[in-house]
Amino acid sequence: RPVGDLSGHSVLVTAGATQEALDPVRFLTNHSSGKMGYAIANAAYLRGADVTLIAAPNTQKAFEGIKIVNVISAQDMFDAVMENAENADMIIKAAAVADFRPAEYQDQKIKKAGKDSICLPLASNPDILQALGDRFGGKKMIAGFCMETENLLENAQKKLKKKNADFIVANNLTNAGAGFGTDTNVVTILSKDGKTEALPCMSKDAVANALLDRLIRAL
Ligand code: C5P
Question: Which part of the chain is the DNA/pantothenate metabolism flavoprotein C-terminal domain (predicted)?
Answer without folding.
Answer: 6-216
